[in-house]
Design brief:
By secondary structure, the protein is mostly beta strands. 11% of the residues lie in helices and 55% in strands. The chain has a 16-stranded antiparallel beta barrel. The longest helix is centred in the first third of the chain and has 19 residues.
Length: 384
């Protein structure tokens, strides 16, 4: 599919008003008030690492420097327009070591709910519904840093795109959803600066090749997700994802993903009690370039046990297959963590997380990092 979808954003916001007009004719529209629900999230980390920041890829909001790391301050709001339209917008402010504070517009979309046939429509800037972690913002991560698979395959800031998405809530006895999105990938400011620096060079460096391997234009994202369980105490979620688009070489990159989550709650749907989660995700990428292309894969799995009220122990393992050209090293990481959560009331919560990372990187040897993360969250859950 080589048709350009850069006008998807405009098209979606044309479709939304037209759909609203149809709904308005069929329903009582006396309740059309605009309602906003602000959200605030802060993540800070202090620690030390032996990882060479100039040689090893980090996530855009990962703690990566010795001592203090300002990971992100997210300012957002849920948006409600009457009974059928909702949305979400957020800006993340962060600071890299030795640089000024930066801000990025991460998401801003509107969504029409309750369309005939069980359909939903979103349009705007969105984190792609791909895999387990990508659609979750920094404050919703289970660990202090991003999964290595997401950083390598989807970009150091996750994979966001400007465009439109149609979701079908399938009419089954369990919870099924199929989403299809079209658009163009979001290019972050620091990525544009990197490309500007390399402009005019006849040959690409390894770092630039790794960046150019990611899809940029004519994006198609497909995800199927199902949730089911025999009772309120045991729940299963499984998903399959596919992303394709034109990469920086002017060719095609295909990314495939499969994820699985099992959750056990001691009290079922009632609050309190112990809780156990097991999250796993596998990603594979097939990249075309002017040297014949390459493919690689990665895997991560995590165990999370809330053994006492507001105390959670975690253990994560990640693996990345190595690629010789571009130079993407084989990598293993194991990350134990301990998190204490706080509920201050009035929608204000916090956490303190201690996490250790042990990395084994081919060509670099073993590296170690330790982080003490602090977080504060205020506001309701986000419209997705």
């Amino acid at each position: 599919m080589k048709k350009t979808y850069t006008n998807c954003l405009i098209a979606c916001f044309v479709i939304i008003p037209l759909s609203l007009s149809s709904l308005a004719e069929a329903q009582d529209t006396t309740n059309n008030a605009i309602r906003l629900e602000p959200t605030l999230h802060l993540r800070l980390a202090h620690g030390n690492t032996s990882l060479p920041a100039d040689e090893v890829a980090f996530g855009g909001h990962d703690p990566a420097e010795d001592n203090f790391n300002f990971q992100g301050f997210e300012i957002g709001t849920n948006i409600y327009l009457g009974d059928y339209v909702s949305g979400f917008a957020t800006v993340n402010t962060f600071k890299r070591d030795g640089e000024d504070f930066e801000s990025e517009f991460e998401e801003g979309f509107l969504k029409i709910d309750k369309l005939p046939g069980g359909f939903e429509l979103r349009g705007g800037r969105m984190l792609a519904r791909f895999g387990d972690q990508n659609a979750r913002h920094l404050h919703a991560w289970d660990f202090a840093d991003a999964n290595m698979t997401n950083v390598r395959f989807l970009g150091e800031d996750g994979f966001g795109y400007d465009g439109g998405e149609l979701t079908w809530l399938l009419p089954t006895s369990w919870q099924d959803a199929l989403s299809i999105g079209l658009g163009s990938a979001v290019t972050h400011d620091h990525e544009e600066e990197d490309h500007d620096e390399d402009e005019g060079e006849e040959e690409h460096g390894h770092d630039e090749e790794a960046e150019m391997a990611r899809p940029e234009k004519n994006i198609v994202v497909i995800r199927y997700q199902t949730q089911f369980g025999p009772n309120d105490f045991h729940r299963f979620q499984a998903g399959g994802s596919y992303l394709t688009g034109d990469n920086g070489f002017g060719m095609t990159t295909d990314i495939y993903g499969a994820d699985f989550t099992y959750t056990w709650r001691e009290n079922g749907l009632e609050p309190g009690g112990q809780q156990f989660r097991w999250r796993s995700e596998w990603l594979m990428r097939d990249v075309e370039n002017d040297e014949g292309g390459f493919d690689d894969c990665g895997f991560n799995t995590a165990l999370l046990w809330e053994f006492s009220e507001n105390w959670e122990a975690g253990l994560r393992y990640g693996y990345l297959e190595g690629v010789s050209d571009p130079e993407l090293a084989e990598r293993h990481r194991i990350s134990p963590s301990l998190t204490k959560k706080f509920d201050f009331g009035s929608d204000l919560t916090g956490l303190v997380r201690l996490q250790y990372n042990h990395d084994d990187i081919k060509g670099h040897g073993t590296e170690d990092s330790i982080w003490l993360q602090f977080g504060f969250d205020w506001g309701p859950g986000e419209v997705r």
